[in-house]
C-alpha cells in the first residue's frame, strides 16, 4: 500500500510513509529554494510525530482505541443530539453540507450552484430563478466548485441569519438562509475569474449604530485582462485582479478594488475596519515557476471606510460593460499612509490562508512554501494608516517556524494557534504570545506546544466557534485531502478524511475519523443554539401557494395550462388531470401537511420531473407536453403507510 501510494505520488518506492512524505517535502521545498528543512526539524517537540511511522501510533492516530479527553466522547447516543453545527463547503460537488459535531454525521446537503435531483433544485421554477437561466430557460451553469463558507455575524458572533459560499469556477456567491437552510440568492461577480476567498463583515465600520453584517468580501485568484474580451492577451500590464464587496442583504455588488498580484483567502477584522487577503502571486506570474520567484509575497489589507469614502467622493471608474464602481488599490497609488486605501505586509513565499485571532488582535498567514507562520498585529496596521507607524513591515510581530507546508490556522481562545502542515501531514499547536516574545528577542523560547499526526495531508482546519470572539476550544476538525489506507478500499476514487480532535488539554487527542465525499474545503463549527431553524414552512412563504384542496384544479389560457395541486397524505388533489400535446404545463404543488418531517415527492415519468415538497412548502415546474399516453405521477418520498398508493394520472389524449 505504501509502495503503491508512493508510486502514485511519483516518489521512489519502498519508503515508509513518513519518510516518503518528508522526501517529497524536501524535493518540493528545495526545488523552489525555500527555507531549509533543518531549522524546521529542530522545532519538533517531544510530542512531535517525528519522521517515523511510529509517530502515528504514539499520538493515538494509528491505534484503534480512542482516548477520551476533556471534550468527552464523539459518540452521540440514540436520543442525544450533537452539541455543535458544522457548515461545510463541498468542493466540486458544488453545494454545502451540514455536519453534526462531534458525531461527524452529515445531516443535510444544501444545493445552490448545481442541480440536485433529490429536492428538484435546478428543475423547479423557484430554484431556477435563484440559479439563473439562459433565454431558452435552461440553466446558465451546471458545475461549481465551493471552497469557503462563512456565516453572518452580529457583534463578533454568528447571528444565525445567513451563510455564504463561493463558486470558484464561475465566480458566483451564494447565500443560504439558515432558518430554512436553503439557498435564497446567487450573485454573479462581474469582471473576475478564480473567485476564491470570502469573508463577511463582523461589524459595520462606517455606521457603528448598525451592528450586523452588511458586506461580504470576495477575492479573485486568477488575473485576467480587464475587460476580458479577447484583447491584450499577452500584455501583462492589462491583467488584473479585483477585490469585491457584495451587499449582504441585497446581494448586489457594491464595489470592486483593483490590486496588484492576486487574492487567495480573505479574512475580516473583528472591529470591522479592515479586510485582508493573502497573496501568493505578487509576481503576477502566469506559470508556477514565475509565481514562486519572489522570496516574500504579501498579505494585503483594505481600509474599508476609506474605500467607501473614495467611492462617495466619485473616485471610482468602471470596467467594460460593468457598472460596478472600481477603486484603485494598486501599490503605486497607495504609498501615502494618510490617503492609502490599502497596504501590503510581506509574508514569505506563496502564503496560503489568512485568519483573524478570536481576541481580534492578530492576522495569521501561513507560509505554504516557507515553514513559517506570519503574525501581523492589527493595531499596527491601523497605526500605519494613521501615519503613526513609519514602516508597515513593523506590523509583523512574529514569524515562528512551525513545520512544512503550513496552510490554515485555527484557534482555541486560550492563546494557541493550530496550523495544518500539508507536507508533514500534521497539525502543529503553537502559542501566539510565545512566538511574539521569541520574535522580540527571547530566542530560547519554543512556541510549538504539540504536534499531531493526521491522515493525511491536511488543508483546512477549524475549531469550535474559532472564527468568532467566543472560541471555546473544545473540538477541532481537520480536513485531510488524502485518506490513502485509512478506510476500506473502494477502488481508485478515495474518500477524504475529516478527523476530529479534542483540543481541551495541552495535547491534542485524535478522536475520530470520518470518511467524506470529495472534497470539502473550508468549514465553520458553532454551538447548536446559535441557530434556530424552522421545521415547517409557512403557506405565505410562496405567493402561488395552493392553500386548500378546493383551490386545486386546471386552468387554461390557449396552450398555457396551469395545474394547481395539493398533497395531504396519502393523496394528491386532484388525482388526475387532462392535457393535450402541444400544451405548456405549469404544475404548482403545495404540501398541505403541516406535520414536521412529512415530506412528499412528485415524480412524472417520461417528463423528467422529480422534486420534493416539505410541510407547507410550494414548488412549481413548467414542461411541454410532447407525447400522448397515461402517465402515473407518484410520491417519491416515503410518507405514509399508503405511500405507494399515493399516485395519480396525467392523461394526454392522442
Ligand atoms: Cu482548499 Cu481554502 Cu480553496 Cu486552502 S483552499 S486547503
Ligand atoms: Cu407522499 Cu409518499
Ligand atoms: Ca509568489
From TrEMBL:
<comment type="similarity">
    <text>Belongs to the NosZ family.</text>
</comment>
<dbReference type="Pfam" id="PF00116">
    <property type="entry name" value="COX2"/>
</dbReference>
<dbReference type="InterPro" id="IPR008972">
    <property type="entry name" value="Cupredoxin"/>
</dbReference>
<dbReference type="InterPro" id="IPR011045">
    <property type="entry name" value="N2O_reductase_N"/>
</dbReference>
<dbReference type="GO" id="GO:0005509">
    <property type="term" value="F:calcium ion binding"/>
</dbReference>
<protein>
    <recommendedName>
        <fullName>Nitrous-oxide reductase</fullName>
        <ecNumber>1.7.2.4</ecNumber>
    </recommendedName>
</protein>
<dbReference type="GO" id="GO:0016020">
    <property type="term" value="C:membrane"/>
</dbReference>
<dbReference type="GO" id="GO:0042597">
    <property type="term" value="C:periplasmic space"/>
</dbReference>
<feature type="compositionally biased region" description="Gly residues">
    <location>
        <begin position="48"/>
        <end position="63"/>
    </location>
</feature>
<dbReference type="GO" id="GO:0005507">
    <property type="term" value="F:copper ion binding"/>
</dbReference>
<comment type="subunit">
    <text>Homodimer.</text>
</comment>
<keyword id="KW-0106">Calcium</keyword>
<dbReference type="InterPro" id="IPR041114">
    <property type="entry name" value="Nos_propeller"/>
</dbReference>
<keyword id="KW-0574">Periplasm</keyword>
<dbReference type="InterPro" id="IPR015943">
    <property type="entry name" value="WD40/YVTN_repeat-like_dom_sf"/>
</dbReference>
<feature type="region of interest" description="Disordered">
    <location>
        <begin position="48"/>
        <end position="75"/>
    </location>
</feature>
<keyword id="KW-0479">Metal-binding</keyword>
<dbReference type="GO" id="GO:0004129">
    <property type="term" value="F:cytochrome-c oxidase activity"/>
</dbReference>
<comment type="similarity">
    <text>In the C-terminal section; belongs to the cytochrome c oxidase subunit 2 family.</text>
</comment>
<dbReference type="InterPro" id="IPR034205">
    <property type="entry name" value="N2OR_C"/>
</dbReference>
<keyword id="KW-0732">Signal</keyword>
<comment type="pathway">
    <text>Nitrogen metabolism; nitrate reduction (denitrification); dinitrogen from nitrate: step 4/4.</text>
</comment>
<keyword id="KW-0186">Copper</keyword>
<dbReference type="InterPro" id="IPR023644">
    <property type="entry name" value="NO_Rdtase"/>
</dbReference>
<dbReference type="InterPro" id="IPR051403">
    <property type="entry name" value="NosZ/Cyto_c_oxidase_sub2"/>
</dbReference>
<dbReference type="InterPro" id="IPR041142">
    <property type="entry name" value="NOS_propeller_2"/>
</dbReference>
<dbReference type="GO" id="GO:0019333">
    <property type="term" value="P:denitrification pathway"/>
</dbReference>
<dbReference type="Pfam" id="PF18793">
    <property type="entry name" value="nos_propeller_2"/>
</dbReference>
<dbReference type="InterPro" id="IPR006311">
    <property type="entry name" value="TAT_signal"/>
</dbReference>
<comment type="function">
    <text>Nitrous-oxide reductase is part of a bacterial respiratory system which is activated under anaerobic conditions in the presence of nitrate or nitrous oxide.</text>
</comment>
<dbReference type="InterPro" id="IPR002429">
    <property type="entry name" value="CcO_II-like_C"/>
</dbReference>
<dbReference type="Pfam" id="PF18764">
    <property type="entry name" value="nos_propeller"/>
</dbReference>
<keyword id="KW-0560">Oxidoreductase</keyword>
<feature type="domain" description="Cytochrome oxidase subunit II copper A binding">
    <location>
        <begin position="559"/>
        <end position="654"/>
    </location>
</feature>
<dbReference type="GO" id="GO:0050304">
    <property type="term" value="F:nitrous-oxide reductase activity"/>
</dbReference>
